[in-house]
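Worked example 2:
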Amino acid sequence: MKALCLRIVNHSLFEKVIVGLILLNGVILGMETSAHLVQQYGQLFELLSGIILLVFIIEAAMKITAVAPKLKLYFGSGWNLFDFSVVLLSLVPSTGEFAMIARLARLLRVMRLISTIPELRLIVSTLVRSLPGMMHVIMLMAVIFYIYAVAGFHLFHEHDPELWGTLGISLLTLFRVVTLEDWTDVMYTAMEMHPLSWIFFVSFVVMGTFVIINLFIAVVINNLEEAKQESLAELQKPTSKDELLKELKQTQDALQRLQVRMENASS
């Protein structure tokens, strides 16, 4: 049974079926937002959702069976823990006080697409690895925001109190500017009082948008390369003792055949 489960869960077709069911579950969740479709096909949606949940339960059971009794091989993976948690939450009754939890659990099934596709897992792992480096970039950005917010308050709060009236409002205005959402309107309003205000806004956009974003990208790309190297290392299985002995035996046999050919050629 263990060997059969291992062959099934490692088969490429099994993985494709799971991905297809996750996508189907996502489509069903989207269709359930239509009252008209729910009225006509609500029972069908419930039936399909139940079948998909049953398949997910069987999948988890087969993966656990495939590594039994070494359950650490399954529960030691964060992605497996996530999948297992989604399955457990999906078993919450969809009625009563737990109805909202059940709906959210069904929505989490779509997130399983990340844990199923290796490329998506690599991206998420890269983002998680990038968090420590991003914190330093965020600290730098916070310092820049604070300096410009205080400067903007003193420069523009009398002329445009709606956008620069307090430090908090100034920070929100700068966030609007850094997203490039109608930031020129904010600049032109400030330039009515201070014609050289464009220096303030252009310098902030250059530092806040281009420099900081490029720093974020640099951190992510750096960690992406490290994550790729780790993924390749995990895929490369270490050579066992039996495999080494087998290769050594093959090499010895090849050397013996070569020696015989050389003796025959010399004679």
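The CA atoms of residues 29 and 107 lie 7 Å apart. The radius of gyration is 30 Å.
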